[in-house]
Amino acid sequence: CLAPMEDMFSKFGANGRCDFCLAPMEDTLRKRMCDNGASPRANPSQMLAHVQVPESKVEKLTKVVTKLVSRIGALATSEGFSGVHLPFSAETKSTLGFALIEYESGEVAKKAVEVLSDYAFDKNHALQVTPYAHGIGLKDVEEGEFKEPEPAPFVERPDTSSWLRDGSQREQLVTRFGKETVVAWYDGKHEPATDYDGSRESKAGVPWCDYYVQWSPRGSYLATMVPSKGVILWGGKDYEKLGRFPAPGVEFVLFSPQENYLLTSNNSRTDPNAIKVFSVSTCKLLRAFPLFPKDFLPDNKPDQERQAIPPPPFHWSHDDKYLARMGKDLISIFETPTMKLLDKRSLSAEGIHEFQFCPTKNIIAYWAPEHGNAPAHVDLIQLPNRKKLRQKNLFNVTKCSMVWQNDGDYLGVKVTRHTKSRKTLYNNLELFRLNEPGIPVEMLDIKDAVMAFAWEPSGSRFAMVHAENPSSTKVDVTFYDMLKTPEPPKNKKKMSSYNPNEKIAELNKLETLQGRQCNCIFWSPAGSHIILASLGESASGTLDFYDCDNKTLVQKEHYRAMQVLWSPSGRSVATIVSQPIGGGYFKFAMDNGYTLWSFQGKQIHQASFETFYQLQWRPREKLLSKEERAKIVKNLKKYEKQFDKADRERARARYIEETKGKRALRTAYRERLAALHEFRRGQKEARMDFLGGYDSEDESNYVYHEVTLETILSTKEDVVY
To answer: Cα–Cα distance between 656 and 661 in angstroms, integer?
Structure first.
């Protein structure tokens, strides 16, 4: 067809043929593109979008579509052609069911296909977008009876939960030291036993890990980071490769709680795709983000101050439905798997400084400082309806720190306040009860400075480290409980209704440990036990193992310890001295390594390395409810004999394995000795002939004399008057 391109778009007749050359519309367009020197299969700058409206709405729809698609990139406009065209049928008095959109570059068109596919155009319609070359290619599809393609042969994926069926119920940990990455079993009584050390990859000359590693939240996968390539996922009994995620320069990995998605970051401020979100099952890239949201960095500050501002972190909801990040006066909440904004808009949060998801519910907690005449406040927002469940106003606030209890029953907010002169700082705790009607808030005033605050993982208790002076070496550790056992009634008539196991929602102080050397607290995942640790360069490395139920304390020390990590079961704990990967001078290199302890403070194993980078316990999913666990603990004595028998059998098997070499040497020695005795007996006659018939082994040839010798070892004289 020799018609101008813009005229050709407007001359399609009712039968879908060009009025200039009577050729089918798709053939005409295809030929015109070829005449212009562009192959439709090689030129991705055109695309088709499925739309259909009557004649009265064509102009309006054209404007709407143009406004939408032009946001992605520059359209290929010319005289009489805006870059968007909706062919119209005079017979049906409506568009032909699609629009033609042309961009200036193929890269922009590819991006448009990704962004606009399944885009919610309105409440009842979604766009279907395809590259023009693919749309034209449908003409070559042969017509005929549909033949169902042969399904691909089933390939069973490795069982990522096989390690949970270990007969001894051992735990696993991974360590990074030197150029090695080692996954090991640990039974809590002996040194770790290697499970896999990347030997298969070493033989193939392929690096298993060049950077840090990360377990998934349920322990199904191990992610190893290779900055030159990206992230590799491993799993199964033999640690097979399950997926690869291209993320050059990766420095950070974050799994979603249900292990459906993986977020990577290279921490590059200049890369528009610094943060990537992948689907774990398909390894498909769902969306990429820059390191900072739009307008997050202030323009009125020098570059040095801008460089010191950390990027706002992403947070996953507990059920993987949402991924959120803080922006300037807002929270951007993205739905999975589309990774599009929830309700097409961000959540307004004026002056927001920090936010967190509830660990068990789709509730966001955030705080914002004072702004103008508005006080500082902590808000609880429910998703997806954005309902404000609770707002707590605060005054004279310098800083807030939010800490969720693992079950999401409580939220603690440590508030640092200042006097009117702003010269004196003091603290108080705002304690939210999420399960109570109206979410009541209790305020706990504290005269001292609070250095650490932590909830018991699945209980109602919390602990805090406080002192009059924040730099004090001797501090107090106080324990509180959000529930209280009521006192028995004095009236005997009411004793029948009294239940000593029933608790009421009332904050009460349990006890205070005075004069401790610690700046951090770490609750055991099983509860009841806590470690009061003194960590850091100038700290003493003191470790206090405290049993909150039996009130027993064991004091240990790991000099220059930097980390304390409980195992998921709470049976063991690791204290670590490590150095960052990347070289450079590290002044504690002589202390590199880790120590494994029992929950009671007994040292089990200690390992030192020239370069030690990382230790991580393999997470273990909790399969029992809180009630089921409480029932097992209550009836634990029933299982003691069974557990003791299993322990004895394992100890016996381990002893046999450890002494296998000694027993082999002993057996060989005995066999050699028996052979020598037999050899000597065979020489008896020759020996007697040599001695003139004298048999040296005949006892009757010997005379025995018995002699008794007395020796005084010591004497003692007592004078008796």
So the answer is: 9
Measure the CA–CA gap between 120 and 338, rounded to whole angstroms: 11
Q: 406: burial class by Cβ within 10 Å (0-12, 13-18, 19+)? A: middle
- Among 109, 103, 115, 134, residue whose Cα is nearest residue 40: 134
Q: How many CA atoms lie within 13 A of 539 on its CB side?
A: 23
Distance between CA atoms of 247 and 253, rounded to whole angstroms? 10
Tell me the pLDDT tens digit for each residue of 350-366. Answer: 999 999 999 999 999 99
Per DSSP (E only), the strands in 496-611 are: 504-516, 520-523, 529-533, 542-547, 552-557, 563-566, 572-577, 593-598, 603-608
Contact 414, 427 (CB under 8 A): yes
Query: Whole-model pTM?
Result: 0.76
In DSSP terms, 511 is beta-bridged to: 479
d(CA 542, CA 549): 22
Angle among Cα 308, 378, 450 to the nearest 5 degrees reads 70
pLDDT tens-digit series, residues 513-534: 999 999 999 999 999 999 999 9
CA distances from residue 102 to 26, 71, 72, 487, 607 in whole angstroms, order as listed: 15, 13, 12, 78, 64
User: Is 710 strand, coil or helix?
Assistant: coil
Give the residue carrying structure tokens 């004279």: 396
- In angstroms, the CA 198 to CA 582 distance is 21
What residues pair up with 230 in beta bridges, in sequence order?
A: 226, 246
